[in-house]
Amino acid sequence: MGSVSLKIGDGTARFKRATLCSSAINILMLFSVITTNLFALYAFNSSPNHRLHNPFHHRNKNISLISEQVSLIIKEIDSSQRKLAQMEKQLLGYDTLDLSRPNLATELKLFLQNHQLPLGKDSRTGITEMVASVGHSCEKSADLLSQYMSYKVSGPCPDDWSLAQKLILKGCEPLPRRRCFAKTVPKPGLTSLPVSLWKSVNDKAVTWSGLGCKNFNCLNSKILSRDCVGCFDLVNGYETQRYVKARSKIEFLMDDVLAMGNGGIRIGFDIGGGSGTFAARMAERNVTVITNTLNVDAPYSEFIATRGLFPLFLSLDHRFPFYDNVFDLVHATSGLDVGGKPEKLEFLMFDIDRVLRAGGLFWLDNFYCSDDEKKRALTRLIERFGYKKLKWVVGEKTDAAWSGKPEIYLSAVLQKPVRI
User: Which parts pass through the membrane (predicted)?
Assistant: First the structure.
């Protein structure tokens, strides 16, 4: 069972297509027709002498027998159709949302309603309805989803970005659209490129609701992740040296990596890019980079945008919304580690490979390996893709701000092969 996306206006609609369920129903109906004909053939060809003796009696008896058999077959078909329809709803996931349940937001009911195709059934694909584009796992968080969709139409949206992010992290992605106006936040002190790349961001230029810190001084005093220690300090912190001055052999210089691309690096994708410094350094070199973000404990998305860069609010469980073979470079840090589950990392790596063009570079930057086994597992996974190792360094690094102990890290620059 699958779905088809169609761009209509400014949105994407998902359509149901013919499934194995519908094929099974067609086979069952064909079987019933054949069975009925066999019964009729048997009835009209059995005991001819006896039928001549009492033709009316046996004719009525045969008709009654056929009617009973047809009724049983019709009942069986109806029962099978109901069972198959229920199975299809369960597979669809969000279709199992009971829209008649009490206290469910009206807006959610409106959004989730299926709509008939404006030109009727598509004869080639069998598509008949437009299905609301909403995450499969939203059904598991119906109460939170209803809360998210409870607002005044054409009024201000609730200040609930943290609720939206919670739903995303629970797999409810994409979220349904809403008919309300998002909160407007003034952006004082904005400057043009390239000055904006390294100018301190005003505390009032971002939203602090739902966060523990209420200013950037507070954030810079915290250890947010291995890749973001003081990463919001664009004047006095290490961010001013990042990618242009190496502190250890594990850290590669950006110009050295770009030279490996032989001048073919123009657009890139940064996974877990912190405050956007990687994209900023690339912008200085006329390379456009999109930075994947979530606002976990800090306003990453707004901060990156204020610097004049492109943030993409997306979880790593979501299929990247890009076409195949479009990026010249994909950059990833320790944020690539999705909960330590090898299967999830495999899915993620295959999606990275999908969006990276042949000959493009995959830069694995300071990936934390908790032990040798994890390093070996990651190495085996990377080798399955057949990438050319342009640079590969494994070593220990002591991060005083994080643990203060020597830890194993892997940095590599890999080139995607041409596959035929």
Answer: 24-44
**Domains of the chain, start order:** 3-92 (no CATH), 106-169 (no CATH), 195-415 (3.40.50.150)
Give the per-residue SS3 of the chain: CCEEEEEECCEEEEEECCCHHHHHHHHHHHHHHHHHHHHHHHHHHCCHHHHHHCHHHHHHHHHHHHHHHHHHHHHHHHHHHHHHHHHHHHHHCHHHCCCCCCCCCHHHHHHHCCEECCCCCCCCCCCCEEECCCCHHHHHHHHHHHHHCCCCCCCECCCCHHHHHHHHHCCCCCCCCCCCECCCCCCCCCCCCCHHHHCCCCHHHCCCCCCCCCCHHHHHCCEEECCEECCCCCCCCHHHCCCCCCCCCCCCCHHHHHHHCCCCCCEEEEECCCCCHHHHHHHHCCCEEEEEECCCCCCHHHHHHHCCCEEEECCCCCCCCCCCCCEEEEEECHHHCCCCCHHHHHHHHHHHHHHEEEEEEEEEEEEEECCHHHHHHHHHHHHHCCCEEEEEEEEEEECCCCCCCEEEEEEEEEECCCCC
pLDDT mean by block of 10 residues, the chain; 420 residues: 41 43 58 62 52 55 75 81 62 56 79 73 72 75 91 94 91 90 90 94 91 92 86 91 91 95 94 93 97 92 96 91 97 79 86 96 91 85 94 82 76 93
